[in-house]
Amino acid sequence: MAESCVFCNIAAGGVEANVVYRDELVTAFRDLNPQAPTHILVIPNEHVESIAHIGDHHPTLVLRMMVVANRIAASEGLEGGYRLVTNVGTDAGQSVMHLHFHVLGGRKLAWPPG
Ligand code: 5GP
Ligand code: ZN
Questions:
Q1: Which residues of the chain carry a pLDDT beneath 50?
Q2: Does the CB atom of residue 113 touch ligand 1 within 6 A?
Q3: 62 vs 44: CA distance, rounded Å
Q4: Which residues pair with 19 in a beta bridge?
Q5: What is the DSSP string of the chain?
Q6: Is the pTM of this model over 0.90?
Q7: By C-alpha distance, which of 1, 36, 6 is closest to 100?
Q8: Given 4, 8, 49, 81, which is the most exposed site by the fewest CB atoms within 10 A?
Q9: Considering every ligand atom, which ligand is closest to the CA of 33?
Q10: Sign of the C-alpha dihedral computed for residues 67, 23, 55 and 97 taken in this order
């Protein structure tokens, strides 16, 4: 765990978050500043900086994150569709350097993104 990383602290239960799912590999919680009616972040419990740092070591972890994201979309009633996004690095606007998938839905989402 990276002591100063807010998402490591949420995964460890040391920082308050509206957690919707937790298992031994991943945690999912509502975004503090939601950009859509449903905006949930799915993170690995272990510190991985971004999807660009996943290498060959974590294939099961990424699969679990995606399965959890899909289950969340179903439980949130996003039958009309949703977006699964992960920002990598500053040019993409990554502001928390702990891998996270955004699950966004509940409204029509514009494309292309800004
Ligand atoms: P990024 O910009 O890195 O792709 O996304 C980071 C997301 O984390 C943002 O949508 C931001 O609102 C959210 N966020 C940052 N700090 C916290 C926090 O302490 N708690 C929660 N629930 N969300 C956070
Ligand atoms: Zn972390």
A1: none
A2: no
A3: 8
A4: 29
A5: --TT-HHHHHHTTSS---EEEE-SSEEEEE-SS-SSSEEEEEEESS----GGG-TTT-HHHHHHHHHHHHHHHHHTT-TT-EEEE---TGGGT--SSS--EEEEESSPPPSS--
A6: yes
A7: 6
A8: 4
A9: 1
A10: positive
Copy the structure tokens of residue 63. Answer: 């699969």
pLDDT given at position 82: 98
Cβ(36) to ligand 1 under 6 A? Answer: no
User: 28 near 22, Cβ under 8 Å?
Assistant: yes
Cα distances from 75 to residues 56, 82, 98, 108, in angstroms, run 31, 12, 25, 18
The number of residues in the chain equals 114
Look at residue 23 in the predicted model and tell me its pLDDT: 97
Report the pLDDT value the prediction gives residue 57, as an integer from 0 to 100: 80
Query: How many Cα neighbours within 13 Å face the side chain of 65?
Result: 25
- Residue identified by tokens 């993170």 is 43
Please tell me the distance from the alpha carbon of residue 64 to that of residue 77, in angstroms, as a whole number: 20
